[in-house]
């Protein structure tokens, strides 16, 4: 069995680009899943493309953040896609999390903590008075209470989350070069696994430029 597991963030509005990403990330060293976010799922052909994708581990990064009824209805509306993982912001509240968990069936309901693009300064700006680490710990406890199946957090906070959440941990904010783009709380793939991440999410470091070459750099970095 392959030890290292990675979700490739399929962030594009073009199905041709997504097909290329899927084709060129196939390999025998790392277990790959595919994450589809707001950009692709809202594109003209995105939903239809996903409905036809077979034999892949799929992740709908919808980041639901709404009242319980709307979150539940949305999950019901995409049931036909038979998604493996689906995200909801933990800040949607315990009632929304519990209501979604009740109907999510075989789809792993995955709670999103504080976005990896935010730092303490920005959190303050939007009105939170706790610092990132404390908030993430607090949210992980809530995810545990709601019996969620997985959590999304920064690789820097895996240790904190693990104290109170014993299921799968998925970490975006992964960089194996010096370009962090809009991400703030980043670590390398090696560091993320060392901290205990079960799955990494990697987008631009793989999908921008030469995908096959980027995959080789990742495999070299991990020495797998
Ligand atoms: O390109 P990059 O590697 O930064 O992509 C990270 C992916 O993970 C994006 O699709 C982004 O929407 C998603 N994500 C994130 N931070 C979170 C949750 C999801 O970056 N907290």
Question: What would you say this structure looks like, in words?
Answer:
With 224 residues, the protein is α/β, with parallel strands linked by helices. The chain has a single domain, classed as Aldolase class I (TIM Barrel, Alpha-Beta Barrel), CATH 3.20.20.70. Helix content is 40%, strand content 18%. It has helices spanning 15-24, 38-41, 46-52, 68-77, 94-103, 120-125, 132-145, 158-162, 189-195, 204-207, 211-222, and strands at residues 5-9, 31-36, 57-64, 85-89, 108-112, 150-152, 168-171, 199-202. The chain has an eight-stranded parallel beta barrel. Helix 4 packs parallel to helix 5. The mean pLDDT is 96.
Offer a few descriptive terms.
eight-stranded parallel barrel, binds cytidine-5'-monophosphate, TIM Barrel, alpha/beta, 224 residues
Bound molecules: cytidine-5'-monophosphate
Which structural category do the helix and sheet elements fall into?
alpha/beta
Number of strands: 8
**Any idea what the shape is?**
globular
Q: Alpha-carbon distance between the termini? A: 12 Å
At the fold tier of CATH, the topology name is: TIM Barrel
Q: What is the overall pLDDT average? A: 96
- CATH hierarchy, class: Alpha Beta
β-sheet strand percentage: 15-25%
- The proportion of residues forming helix, as a percent range, comes to 25-40%
The secondary-structure element order is: EHEHHEHEHEHHEHEHEHH
Poorly predicted segments: none
The CATH fourth-level homologous superfamily = Aldolase class I
* Distinct helical segment count: 11
Calculate Rg over CA atoms: 17 Å
Instruction: Summarize the main sheet.
Output: 8 strands, parallel, barrel
- Give the count of structural domains: 1
What strand order characterises the main sheet?
1-2-3-4-5-6-7-8
């Amino acid at each position: 069995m392959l030890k290292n597991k990675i979700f490739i963030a399929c962030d594009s509005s073009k199905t041709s680009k997504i097909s290329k990403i899927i084709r060129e990330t196939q390999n025998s060293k790392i277990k790959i899943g595919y994450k589809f976010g707001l950009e692709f799922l809202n594109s003209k052909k995105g939903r239809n493309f996903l409905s036809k994708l077979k034999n892949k581990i799929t992740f709908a990064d919808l980041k639901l953040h709404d009242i319980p009824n709307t979150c539940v209805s949305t999950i019901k509306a995409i049931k036909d896609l038979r998604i493996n993982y689906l995200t909801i912001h933990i800040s949607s509240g315990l009632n929304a999390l519990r209501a979604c968990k009740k109907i999510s069936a075989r789809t792993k309901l995955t709670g999103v903590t504080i976005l990896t693009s935010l730092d303490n300064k920005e959190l303050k700006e939007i009105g939170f008075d706790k610092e990132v680490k404390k908030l993430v710990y607090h949210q992980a406890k809530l995810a545990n209470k709601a019996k969620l199946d997985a959590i999304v957090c920064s690789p820097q906070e895996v240790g904190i989350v693990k104290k109170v959440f014993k299921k799968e941990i998925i970490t975006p904010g992964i960089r194996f070069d010096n370009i962090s783009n809009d991400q703030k709380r980043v670590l390398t793939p090696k560091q993320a696994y060392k901290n205990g991440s079960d799955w990494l999410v990697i987008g631009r470091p793989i999908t921008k430029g030469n995908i096959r070459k980027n995959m080789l750099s990742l495999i070299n970095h991990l020495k797998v």
